[in-house]
Amino acid sequence: MRFRRGDFPEGFVFGTATSAYQIEGSRLGGAGPCHWDTFAATPGNVVRAEDGARACEHVHHWPEDLDLVRDGNFDAYRFSVNWARVLPEGRGTVNAEGMDYYDRLVDGMLARGLQPWLTLYHWDMPSDLAMRGGWANPDVAGWFSDYARLVMGRLGDRITATATINEPWCVAWLSHFLGIHAPGLRDIRAAAHAMHHVLLAHGTALQALRADGHRDLGIVLNMEVCAPASEAPEDRAAAATQDAIFNRWFLEAITQGSYPAEALAGLEPHLPRGWQQDMAQIAQPLDWLGVNYYTRRFHAAAPGQPWPATREVPGPGPKTGSGWEIYPEGLEQFLLRAGAAVGKLPIHVTETGMAWPDQVVQGQVNDAERIAFMDSHLAAAGRALKAGVNLQGFFCWSLLDNYEWAEGYDKRFGLVHVDFDTLSRRPKASYVALADALTRSS
Ligand code: GBH
Cross-referenced NCBIfam families, in alphabetical order (predicted)? Predict the structure, then answer.
């Protein structure tokens, strides 16, 4: 690859990322059930109804997996804690085995010279809380905050940076309006409540953690370019509405304490009563912002449909194995946009990557497409840096092939190939290329 570590400033953090449900094995180690276990079991929700019960069995393979992060010359490892592994019922009784596991995992990172980057919620809502309405229930702010304090009370002294929530758009809109992720609702009222409560939970937890003395607290937003399908005013309006729901809702709430009018137009009638009083709580000062970036999508007006009355139109560019358009310029755009929103705060690319139908041929996986993808996205990040954005880190998604949510095990995002029968790990060409590019001089 063209990229070298030395192209970026001294101290810039290069990492790789995973999440608990996608790799650990959700039925191992005394974890309670989460809403993905039940969602996946319902036919039609997930390819072949696959779930994360076993996944990569990372709870058993973690020493080998952390060795891979270290040997890839990464500085940092972004991981998440499964809420239901720590608190099988979501609150109350602690699963000591689960807590001990994360304790060893963090020590394992430190022993290998890796910075631990923790995400508190990457989509594993405990089933008991999901049955009480999950993100649609206003009590979730308190449940999440209590859980966050528990985890940070045990791990916080060794964590480099902590994110409250991974991708609130997915937690709220994708899961409660589009119905593609657990709990699989298609309900504007539940969606509006989740859109608000996920942010309230973030703000409430952030405030509580800071009061406990924790620092380096942030959130991870996924940003997607919402482009108009044509220059027609109605298509431009459709793209603006999607941009408001996808990107601006979250970015403006956490930085300005307000929601964009284009999204309120459809959501306000469904928001919980008194939502305005929560906005100051939501806009807690942050220590950093994470941006996950994957693609650009085109939107057209869909007259006669209920709000937001838009439909997706395929983009012109080359596509990944998930059919997502490859558009590195979008990463540069969002870093500039995030920089304008958060000013001097550090920004990190907390995920980017691509799915590809990688195959082992003569013992090797030659994923040249992924090498090119990483190269072009690192270059885009470099341009944002040169333009003055306070970008300080870049994390590749993902370390391992893993459970790709509604796509089951079909879509491979790893730098390291996983054989899901034998669970053997095999570094792909992209891993080797990155390890070489990230070699430290001296
Ligand atoms: C990230 O989400 C997640 O953090 C990570 O867990 C996941 O494995 C990774 O990306 C790869 O997917 O409306 O069904 O067409 C990325 C955000 C949101 C991007 C949904 C694609 C379109 C899905 N994704 N979006 S759909």
Answer: BGL
Query: Rounded to a whole number, what is the distance in angstroms from the first to the last CA of the chain?
Result: 21
User: What ipTM is given for this predicted complex?
Assistant: 0.91
Determine contact, residues 357/370, Cβ cutoff 8 Å: no
Cβ burial of 432 (10 Å; 0-12, 13-18, 19+) is middle
Give pLDDT, residue 442. Answer: 65
| Positions in the chain short of pLDDT 70 | 442
405 is in an annotated binding site: yes
Q: What is the pLDDT of residues 128-140, one digit of tens each?
A: 999 999 999 999 9
Task: Kindly state the greatest CA–CA separation across the chain.
Answer: 64
Report which ligand 1 atom has the smallest distance to the Cα of 355: 11
* Tokens coding 93: 């009784």
Position 292, amino acid: N
Fold of the domain spanning 5-437? TIM Barrel (3.20.20)
Q: What are phi and psi of 125, to 5 degrees?
A: -65, 120
Q: What is the DSSP letter of 159?
A: -
**DSSP 8-state assignment for residue 93:** S
pLDDT (tens digit, 9 = 90+) per residue, 332-346?
999 999 999 999 999
CA 231 to each of CA 181, 228, 238: distance values in angstroms, whole numbers, following the listed order = 32, 7, 11
pLDDT of amino acid 441? 85
Q: Of 50, 224, 262, 351, which is the active-site residue?
A: 351
Q: Which of 105, 221, 80, 217 is nearest to 162 (CA)?
A: 217
* All structural domains of the chain with their residue ranges: 5-437
Examine the residue annotation and report whether 24 is marked as an active-site residue of this protein.
no
Site to substitute for ligand 1 among 225, 294, 322, 399, most atoms within 8 A of C-beta:
294
| Alpha-carbon gap, residue 48 to 337, rounded angstroms | 39
| Confidence at residue 140, expressed as pLDDT on a 0 to 100 scale | 98
174 CA distance to ligand 1 middle (Å): 9
H-helix segments, 2-95: 20-23, 35-41, 58-71, 83-86
Helices and strands in the chain: count of H runs, count of E runs = 17, 11
| Annotation marks residue 167 as catalytic | yes
Residue 425, helix vs strand vs coil: strand
